[in-house]
Inverse folding.
């Protein structure tokens, strides 16, 4: 699968239970649940987290690759707890989670903004937003783009697209994959 794959609420992975084959555990970085990444994303995550530590803003991985079965269990538990409409606002349906691509990391700084919007205001969150593109990552769900990506801002969720595309998006100022690739906005599921 291309590292430029666009997964959103209108574009399920194909096949829907896609399993990444080149998975490795990133080396030398704290990884809360020891989840792997596709090899190029793992290498980039190693470089980015090492640079963050050098810059005085150490971070850890709190989520990476989640397979289809894991997402089924996670999503169903949210639906059971909060109902489907609420669950759809914060959790992707199985086959629609970018984590299933193996190209995504969620990061945290051991602070009080674990998986929260305020992570973007922390020194670590600011450093990552500024430097992620150098390592081939983008902030996939930026502020102000909810109607396009279908997700609330997630300043902790970094998607690997490779340094070339990340640099191109940065230089053109186009911050979503949907806009960059001229794809329809995906504010919600087709049902
Ligand atoms: Zn995430």
């Amino acid at each position: 699968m291309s590292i430029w794959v666009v997964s959103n609420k209108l574009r399920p992975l194909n096949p829907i239970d896609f399993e990444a084959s080149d998975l490795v555990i990133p080396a030398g970085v704290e990884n809360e649940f020891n989840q792997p990444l596709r090899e190029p994303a793992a290498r980039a995550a190693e470089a980015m987290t090492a640079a963050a530590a050098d810059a005085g803003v150490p971070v850890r991985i709190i989520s990476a690759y989640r397979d289809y079965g894991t997402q089924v269990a996670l999503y169903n538990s949210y639906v059971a707890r909060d109902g489907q409409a609420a669950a759809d606002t914060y959790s992707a349906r199985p086959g629609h989670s970018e984590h299933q691509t193996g190209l995504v990391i969620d990061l945290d700084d051991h602070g009080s903004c674990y998986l929260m919007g305020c992570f973007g205001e922390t020194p670590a969150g600011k450093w990552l937003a500024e430097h992620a593109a150098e390592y081939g990552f983008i902030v996939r769900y930026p502020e102000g783009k909810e109607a396009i990506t279908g997700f609330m801002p997630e300043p902790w969720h970094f998607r690997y697209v490779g340094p070339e595309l990340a640099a191109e998006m940065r230089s053109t100022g186009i911050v979503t994959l949907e806009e960059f690739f001229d794809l329809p906005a995906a504010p919600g599921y087709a049902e």
Remarks:
- Residues 67-101 form one domain.
